Amino acid sequence: MAKTTITDIAKKLGLTPSTISRALAGNPRIKIGTREAVEKAAAEMGYERNAVASSLRSGKAMTVGIIVPRINRMFFGNAISGAESVLNEAGYTVIICQTHEKVENEKNALKTLSMNRVAGILISHSIESADSSHIREALDSRSKLVQFDRVFYDLPGAKVVNDNFHGAYEATSHLLRMGYKKIGTLAGYMNVSCYKERLDGYFKALSDAGMSRDESLVYYGSILQETGRVSGKKAIEAGCDALYSAGDFSALGAVEAACEAGKNIPEDFGIVGTANEDFTSIMNPPLSSLDLNPYEIGRQAALAFLDGSDEVVKVKTELRERLSSKRNGNR
Amino acid sequence: MAKTTITDIAKKLGLTPSTISRALAGNPRIKIGTREAVEKAAAEMGYERNAVASSLRSGKAMTVGIIVPRINRMFFGNAISGAESVLNEAGYTVIICQTHEKVENEKNALKTLSMNRVAGILISHSIESADSSHIREALDSRSKLVQFDRVFYDLPGAKVVNDNFHGAYEATSHLLRMGYKKIGTLAGYMNVSCYKERLDGYFKALSDAGMSRDESLVYYGSILQETGRVSGKKAIEAGCDALYSAGDFSALGAVEAACEAGKNIPEDFGIVGTANEDFTSIMNPPLSSLDLNPYEIGRQAALAFLDGSDEVVKVKTELRERLSSKRNGNR
DNA sequence: TTGTATGCGTTATCAC
DNA sequence: GTGATAACGCATACAA
């Protein structure tokens, strides 16, 4: 069965398509009786507005694209849910694209969304994205850009980020308060804003504690579990007794490394991660982690799109203190 | 800047829109020189095909919708990735919708996809979906339906599922081999095909071991962590010394319950979960789990869509044996 | 090999 | 209040 169109309804009711269109759009110029008749007929005939045709004619797309590195990271999954809750409410359909951290996939996603003439793009760029050029190229006046979590500040449009600086500052200060003396960090990549900001917060905490900036304490690179294991091993060999990790998976790897090195957590070695992944609370020992409130990040990103705002929105982080960083006597 | 259209290119080259359309579509009737000129001009002018207009005119959408309960479950996240890999390769754009297990959201998602005239719908229905009626109503001849994981066998279209029966059979048999005597199960909801099939496999394993069917060993309900904790407690009080759980989160809850009851895992109490969530390998003790190969499920679902197949595809499960079910002396 | 004419389903701009 | 007409951008049957 082909879909019912407004023309079908028009024929049935002896009206014209224009009237049907107006009636279904709730245009006040239409007689109330007519509108009711149209709505009744539409329901009976199983009419569903053709969003494709509607969007083509009106030039207004009711679709928003979301581009993330991967949907199965707790952070991005929840950010998407937060954005969806706002966007669906406002009548938008959401297209989700994963880049798997590849800039090539990101370019394809941008192109796909552009071809589909979406009303807006919510993006958190891939690690491979060294700069903003490919995103700038994909921009046009029709679709609004909102960046979240990982943002390029040189691009137009709203940016919704965590207060990474203060979050990392708090995490590092917490480790200092717990009595750890040589605190390293698994820092991530410096082309990614959130990691850069966390590193700054980490350094500030150490500096406020009277410690001078020591680059040898910084382990750059991916925040995957395996990288965390390798870097964690190095940090331990270098004499670190604690780590602030910009990600939870790398923190998990560091925990493994510490165990392999015969360290007792948290007595000999303290760790705080970032993102508050589900597994952090069920690890042994449970991992302290900086909660990034991803659902709220997504919500704010969607709201920024709807408002057409151009601001930088900062969302607070919350440190979840668990056993991995709570040294005996300091609990 | 408004987007470049084929008319713009036509004017610039002194040709007609039809020729441009054909040239860009790779129509062999177009002179090779013309095609190259068109491609060059299109690139220079930053042309991007308007997928909306194209889809309206041709009646063929290059968009596929995927409906899942939630994207942040490892199973669904990976299933989506698997489907995407196939669909993107074939030139399709993917729209992802979450139902959060609510039938109301599922109806909305179906409507959204229908309004967007997608070429196909890949769906794993919500727990609230008692039957297939709302999905059947949303069906039409234009879009192909493929169900995966949780399927209604009374609907047309392909179904891609795990071999749940044999998987659960294997998991339960494994517990029997490890010497557990009274094996209960956290069974899920019986309106959901995968849980129903797992329960059947569980019973078959017990029956093959000479044990009669005992409904008191079956704990129905959600497979959330909290439910698992409650049901696990009941199972322990009822004298069970092992559980096969149709989900990992409920298995996690059961582990908590066992610990709270002072049970030693795996000596006093054995557990096997399902889905092989990331956290299973880092739990203490590591949780044995039935791996469902979600990426392959997603791939097969996408392939079934592309092929227009109508078959039932079964994907093998693999039991990941970990400490939670390996009693001393049986390792 | 290219051009002409038409229409996908809807909405916007006139007119009445 | 409603109708007639055109147009969104593209693809395709039919001509040439």
Keywords:
homodimer; 331 residues; alpha/beta; Rossmann fold; 3 domains; six-stranded mixed sheet; 43% helix; DNA-binding
Record the strand order, biggest sheet of chain A. Answer: 2-1-3-4-5-11
Total helices of chain A: the number is 12
Number of strands of chain A: 12
CATH class of the largest domain in chain A: Alpha Beta
Please identify the oligomeric state: homodimer
Topology overview:
2 copies of one chain form a homodimer.
Chain A: H1 6-13, H2 17-25, H3 32-44, H4 51-58, E1 63-68, H5 74-89, E2 93-98, H6 103-115, E3 120-123, H7 133-138, E4 144-148, E5 158-162, H8 164-177, E6 183-188, H9 193-208, E7 218-220, H10 225-237, E8 242-245, H11 248-260, E9 270-274, E10 288-291, H12 294-307, E11 312-315, E12 318-320
Parallel strand pairs in A: 1-2, 1-3, 3-4, 4-5, 5-11, 6-7, 6-8, 8-9, 9-10
Antiparallel strand pairs in A: 10-12
The structure holds a DNA duplex (16 and 16 nucleotides).
Can you put this structure into words, describing what you see?
By secondary structure, chain A is of the alpha/beta class. Chain A has 3 domains: 6-49, no CATH class; 58-161 and 295-315, Rossmann fold (3-Layer(aba) Sandwich); 164-292 and 319-325, Response regulator (Rossmann fold), CATH 3.40.50.2300. The first copy, chain A, has 12 helices and 12 strands. Chain A has a 6-stranded parallel beta sheet with strand order 2-1-3-4-5-11, with helices on both faces. The longest helix of chain A has 16 residues, at 74-89. Chain A starts with 5 loop residues before the first helix and ends in an 11-residue tail after the last strand. Chain B binds a DNA duplex (16 and 16 nucleotides) through helix 2 and helix 4.
